[in-house]
């Protein structure tokens, strides 16, 4: 008699659970399928590339002008910080340095600040103040801070123009008092405006530590305007 | 006494060692935390506790080990990252204000470093106090020269901005190079004589920086044309800031040979006096010129020239 040897032991069905799984064809897939829309974007780039130069310049000038208006009426708006640019500060700095340039060519003791000195003071001072606020834990970016500090020089530039006009006529005593009032008002306006923009980005216990260098910076510029 | 043991039981450990040593209440208040905000609160609370009589000797003994330990813990970032330098600006407004007020009012027995710096030396105070002093000296020197020349006819008012650079160089080199030299000297003496108190370079920079704060109102007082007021203000400023330096550095050098200790303290004070009188001499006119100016104003009355410029003769003595 033959013995039936089970030829195959029942395999341990390690795939037992998997037999229930079936991959159906209609599993929902989530996601977006985007076909990159080429032509409209290219049209936009063409539109700014092809526009006349006058339009480009006017658009930048309008942006700069809008920021000047923001400085004149400092509300808590983020427009100055969102679209920062350094054209405005450069314009103001050059204007100020040209007007502050001291003395005439033939004076031996030319004590007024030279163009380079004013330029360096303004930009170096802004960089130092920005570094100071970042080291104290401020969350504002480097160039945004430079932009705000530069734009807030505008009241002082206006004061400079007024001082030059006042110097043209009138007695010296009277003109000095008027200039003192104008410069004091404009430097406090500058400090207040830049504080209004920058205050939100500083840690709460260190606001005075950040505002004081700004105050010193505008005070020194105001002093330069008053004495030249 | 039962009350005493309850006292010992209720308080935490480091407080009991405090009463053992009879040391300064602030000596053991160093909290081992890395983050900035957390470590300041216990300091503030401790400082408000009344400071009773204490031995200066025991204070550094208990303090110094922890000082060395923690100063290593704080600067954990490598020096080329921004975060490393942020640790030097880890101060808040009230701390800076307290440090400045503490530098204006020295008290024998109160060590400025131990009381106010508390191994959190900052660079904000020294840097901005020096900057303020530079501009105040330049501006007040300018004003005083202008006031001298007010009565002279045909005076030219010259702002003289090169004085700002000279003032900046003088003050910043005093406030940063002298601490460097002093720190090197103290480290060298420390290797020869076992001093109990030693300061890190940044703490010395802090002491020098904050001690210059008293000069700011003093320089503003120099505007008044009365010689008595000027001498009074410079002497008072010298005494206050000099005593801060003396009280800070005397514990560090007194264990040395007496001649070396006296020599170091004399050098510190001599440099300080040199800075004060040098600034006064260079940036401010002397009073003789003011007398002639006053006579001129009385004699000639006011004047206004159409060009609004006035000549100024160089009258520095």
UniProtKB/TrEMBL annotation, chain A:
The keyword Heme does not apply. Pfam families: Yip1. Signal peptide: none annotated. It is a multi-pass membrane protein. GO terms for cellular component: Golgi membrane; trans-Golgi network. It comes from the Eukaryota. Residues 73-224 form the Yip1 domain. The lineage of its organism: Eukaryota, Metazoa, Chordata, Craniata, Vertebrata. The chain crosses the membrane at residues 84-103, 115-136, 148-170, 176-197, 209-226. This is Protein YIPF. Keywords: Membrane, Transmembrane, Transmembrane helix. Its main location: Golgi. Belongs to the YIP1 family. The gene is YIPF6. One of its GO terms (biological process) is endoplasmic reticulum to Golgi vesicle-mediated transport. It is found in: Golgi apparatus membrane; Membrane. The keyword Phosphoprotein does not apply.
Automatic annotation (TrEMBL), chain B:
This is Protein YIPF. Belongs to the YIP1 family. The keyword Ribosomal protein does not apply. It is a multi-pass membrane protein. It comes from Oncorhynchus tshawytscha. Keywords: Membrane, Transmembrane, Transmembrane helix. The gene is YIPF1. Residues 16-65 are annotated as: Disordered. The chain crosses the membrane at residues 123-144, 164-188, 200-225, 231-253, 260-283.
